[in-house]
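We emphasize that the prediction below concerns an isolated chain of 374 residues; any contacts that depend on oligomerization or on bound cofactors are therefore not represented. The input was used exactly as deposited, without trimming of termini.
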Amino acid sequence: MPEKATILVIDDEIAMRDSCSQVLTKDGFRTETAEDGDSGLKKIRETKPDLVLVDLKMPGMSGMELLEKIADIDPNIVSVVITGYATIESAVEAMKRNAYDFLPKPFTPDQLRIVTKRGLERRRLALESAQLQLEKEKMKENFITLVSHQLRSPLASIQQYFEVILGGFAGNVDRKQKEMIEQASKYIDDLLRLVDDWLNMSRIEAGKLVEKFEPVDLVHVLSETMELLKPLANDKKVTLEINSHDSRPVVQGNAETLKQVFTNLISNGINYNREGGTVAVSTREEDDYLAVEVSDTGIGISQKNLPFIFDEFFRVKSQKTRAVTGSGLGLPIAKRIIEAHNGSIKLTSKLGKGSTFSILLPNAKGKDKSRWKK
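Result of the prediction step, given as a token string:
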């Protein structure tokens, strides 16, 4: 048998409290009553009702104020306003304060039953939705664990076996075999990057990727990143440049995740560049922020594709980008990380002319606020 719903009637008129209580009790509900806002609030904390009938005009605490306090206690409690002074303005104001419905006095028992039934159905759906959300979050956590241990670990092990074979530790490898293993190893690398991007996106959504904030020397992070990417730049015959207009730009953030952002942006600038091209990184102070620009002389992005560049799994498809592999998650992850730092990122680009990513991060000496609209 399902548990009976509890309904609380808060009204300063004893006749209204008694009549509502009789109708609802007869229909099988548990009922409680209160004569004013203060006693009603106490009853709400004690009985945790499913639905509350609230009179707007009461001595002491007003019905409007009570509606806000009910929502603070439990937003899933359904509040129905009952009043003899119904106006459009009061109805709109009540809805803004989390009221579900409006029942003008006088009303019939059937009208009360209809509103009550509708309100309880709304509460049932809200609670089911909340439960489904919890189950979804649990499934997501389990999925992250599954991917981490059941997928990433075997892929990493396969990669290690390939390295052993290519190193000649398992016997001689002829040229054709070496080419096949190197190609398979490249595919494993791509899969590992996809898994890592997927895990990072899941951690961002769970609010776990960017947790520890401290003063970060931005030029140090950028220099480390560019040093790491030098072999790729040399291979692609692309020049890396860094220019800081601030002697010591310091942001309040997380060094590892910021390094991840700039690794993504600079490597994109290298991969989508032309032979003999340049990737230039510059920093400067701008009010309470430090501005970072990552510019390249590459193939650029068309205006029709710019609105989608930070969408998950979106990749520009063209003859020139076919050779560049990726998951389509790098830029969305970069955007989420920058926003987690209370910063902003935007892209300007011209097809055939290159692209510039412009980032604002709160200066460790400035105020922690965002100036650009996301």
